[in-house]
Design goal:
By secondary structure, the chain is of the alpha+beta class. It has 6 helices and 6 strands; from the N terminus they run H-H-E-H-E-H-E-E-E-E-H-H. The longest helix has 16 residues.
């Protein structure tokens, strides 16, 4: 990053990255959230997005194609993550229950199928059925055992900002 303005001093990289992320988060939330005070205290450092193949309805345009998509974020503190979610969500329109080992949040009036689950290790966002399936799996999946996925992961020789596996 030393080629970018403001990143000449590598000892200041963490501070500079926090400043950049603060700007991005503030802009995205109209100054209601910041990286340093609202997200960094619970963020575990990794974000994963997964999606299966679209179903027949998606191919013919009747749905969005996001029915089986999941966003998974690693966390370091469950209570801070819940507090963060509750700090900006309209809790009057959200049901908070438990499902398996997770705090489960979904839309009270069922106008949307979006759900959020928070466990001790991850925050999961997606449609209700996909989130429940992820909680049920407790992180145990055969995806990482697939030979093609193993081969792709074996090519990693350093840390990356992004890494994609398409199977």
């Amino acid at each position: 990053l030393s080629n970018f303005p403001g990143f000449d001093d590598q000892s200041q990289i963490e501070t500079k990255l926090s400043e950049v992320l603060d700007r991005i988060v503030r802009l995205a939330t109209q100054d209601k959230q910041s990286w340093s005070s609202d997200i960094k205290p619970w963020f575990g450092g990794q974000i994963g997005v997964g999606m299966g193949l679209p179903d027949r309805r998606t191919l013919f345009g009747s749905t969005t194609g996001l029915e089986n998509a999941l966003l998974v974020v690693t966390i370091t503190d469950r209570s801070k993550t819940i507090a963060w979610l509750e700090s900006f969500a309209d809790m009057a329109s959200i049901n908070r229950t438990t499902y398996g080992n997770a705090d489960f949040f979904d839309n009270a009036d069922r106008q949307t199928d979006l759900a959020v689950a928070i466990t001790d290790k991850v925050l999961i966002v997606g449609v209700d059925a996909a989130v429940r399936a992820a909680v049920d799996s407790n992180g145990a999946s055969t995806f990482g055992q697939d030979e093609n996925v193993k081969a792709a992961l074996a090519t990693i020789d350093a840390d990356y900002v992004g890494f994609t596996v398409t199977r």
